[in-house]
Specification:
- This is Branched-chain amino acid transport system substrate-binding protein.
- InterPro entries: BCAA_transport, Leu-bd, Leu_Ile_Val-bd, Peripla_BP_I, TAT_signal.
- Pfam families: Peripla_BP_6.
- It is built from twelve helices and 14 strands.
- By secondary structure, it is of the alpha/beta class.
- The chain has two domains: 4-149 and 297-370, Rossmann fold (3-Layer(aba) Sandwich), CATH 3.40.50; 151-278, Response regulator (Rossmann fold, 3-Layer(aba) Sandwich), CATH 3.40.50.
- A five-stranded parallel sheet has the order 2-1-3-4-5, with helices on both faces.
- Helix 11 packs across helix 12 (339-347).
- The longest helix is centred in the N-terminal third of the chain and has 20 residues, at 46-65.
Length: 388
């Protein structure tokens, strides 16, 4: 097995070229199950891909140390996309044609996932995405599954909370990236169902560093009772800072696209009071013992935190954990490495308790989560708190 030191050396060297191919198991193909993955480990979405890759590496090693799967070691082969859809297409083609992987995990961002899906479906290989857009699983594609909650669900959870607070007139400012644009469209479609009226709708680009102009327009719009910011990466942190600087005295909602301590770190004191929907993983220690996810999320938090620090724990690493464990479970139930049998076993998953919720797939549902899997959180004193 490649040593820890050599893997880190490979990681550092490959980062300079924007790509990475790492093997964490013996090289003999007959003895391994090749797990191909492509993640945004560097670049503006690194807060997604970095914990995802670390999670996969940590648990692949753990599974291999326990004997592997079906008597075979897992071999992780990874490339860094920096969230660039074009790179994702190039690397997935390489994973399929040159590396000849048995299964695909990843796509940190929605744009790169959507870009590679036609290739995945043509190749007929089991694939689990870690990205949020509803379009990844609606309509259902035979070989593609996903672990995170959808942007549609995030809109629904947010509007549900707004309705409870009597907030019916809002402003929206969204990123133009794949995730931000998708959630913007979904929120527009869902708002009316909850009696929410979007009075003003602004956008910003992924490279923008100041959203004061857009937020000034929102502030000047009469009747705005709250602001919603669909987006991921550094953009939402900038929005949050500008929001406070302008003295906008209404509730600010973010999406599950910022569900990590990195967002709180970037936004600083301005994050106080921000609400967002997220997985139970962020509040593992605050869950009642009766919660079915408590055991899973506390174990993941403890293991990942012990290796990389408690501040590094995020729902994004949890998406990777769920993806890996779902595919391992499917291999065991299939009793085979045949791709079609593994896909069928994956689709037959019922009651898997993961970091994102309790998952039940079907022929018409390749995400397997309902709205109860989302928890509404509020940032207080630099930490997550559960909203009752």
């Amino acid at each position: 097995m490649t040593s820890v030191i050599s893997r880190r050396t490979l990681l550092a060297a490959a980062a300079a070229f924007g790509m990475l191919s790492v093997s964490v198991a013996p090289a003999s193909a007959a003895d391994t199950i090749k797990v191909g993955t492509f993640l945004a480990v560097t670049g503006p979405a690194s807060f997604l891909g970095d914990p995802e890759l670390k999670t996969l590496q940590m648990y692949v090693d753990k599974i291999n140390d326990s004997g592997g799967v079906l008597g075979k070691k897992l071999e992780l082969v990874h490339y860094d996309t920096a969230a660039d859809p074009n790179k994702a297409v190039t690397f997935v083609k390489r994973l399929l044609d040159q590396d000849e992987v048995d299964v695909l995990l990843g796509g940190s961002a929605s744009g790169e996932t959507l870009a590679v899906m036609p290739m995945v479906e043509k190749a007929e290989i089991p694939y689990i995405s870690f990205a949020g857009a509803r379009k990844i699983v609606d309509p259902v594609q035979k070989w593609t599954f996903k672990t995170p909650h959808t942007d549609t669900m995030a809109c629904q959870k947010i509007f549900e909370d707004m309705k409870k607070r009597g907030l019916t007139k809002i402003g929206m400012i969204s990123g133009t990236d794949g995730f931000g644009a998708s959630m913007q469209a979904e929120c527009k479609a869902e708002a009316g169902k909850y009696g929410v009226n979007i009075l003003v709708d602004e956008t910003y680009g992924p490279k923008d560093t100041d959203m004061t102009a857009q937020l000034t327009k929102i502030k000047a719009t009469a009747g705005v009772q709250a602001v919603l910011n669909p987006g991921f990466g550094q953009g939402p942190a900038i929005v949050t800072k500008n929001f406070k600087q302008l003295g906008l005295n209404v509730p600010l909602y973010q999406s599950h696209g910022v569900a990590s301590k990195k967002f709180i770190e970037l936004a600083g004191d301005a994050a106080e009071g921000v609400r967002l929907p997220a997985a139970a993983l962020l509040v593992a220690d605050k869950l009642p013992d009766s919660d079915p996810q408590k055991k899973v999320v506390t174990a993941y938090t403890a293991e990942f935190g012990a290796k990389y620090g408690a501040e590094a724990v995020s729902t994004f690493g949890g998406h990777a954990y769920d993806g890996l464990m779902l595919i391992v479970d499917a291999y065991k139930r299939a009793g085979s490495t045949d791709k079609a049998k593994v896909r069928d076993a994956l689709e037959a998953t019922k009651g898997y308790v993961g970091t994102g919720g309790v998952v039940t797939f079907s022929a018409t549902d390749h995400m397997g989560l309902d709205l109860s899997a989302f928890r509404m959180l509020e940032i207080r004193h630099g930490d997550w708190t559960l909203v009752n």
